[in-house]
What we know:
- By secondary structure, this protein is mainly alpha-helical.
- About 80% of the residues lie in helices and about 0% in strands.
- The chain contains 4 helices and no strands.
- The two termini are about 25 Å apart.
Amino acid sequence: MIQNYRKLIAWQRGMDLAEAIYRVTAEFPSVERFGLSRQLRRAAVSVISNITEGRGRRSTKDFKRFVDIAYGSLCELETQLELAERLDFFSKEERQRTLALVSETGRLLNGLRRALVSRS
């Protein structure tokens, strides 16, 4: 089994973020089970899935493309978190803690992308 993606700090933070999103959305109103909650979870899983898939590709160009997709999912997640806060689905403090993970993951993805660009 190929596991070298697990060494990427961007993937590790992405996993922390996905875990946090699952925990936060578990407290959302039940009416949101198939709405915003599901969208948040899908975006969070998309971040780590795209890092993993990109790392599994055999070219730097493909890996960079998947890192770009992961970053797009991260941006989507950030917007959805703001909406969830506006709808009072969770506290400002929970949102700030989660956004700190979003920011850190974004910085790591940007660094990974820069490294891939310089490699190609």
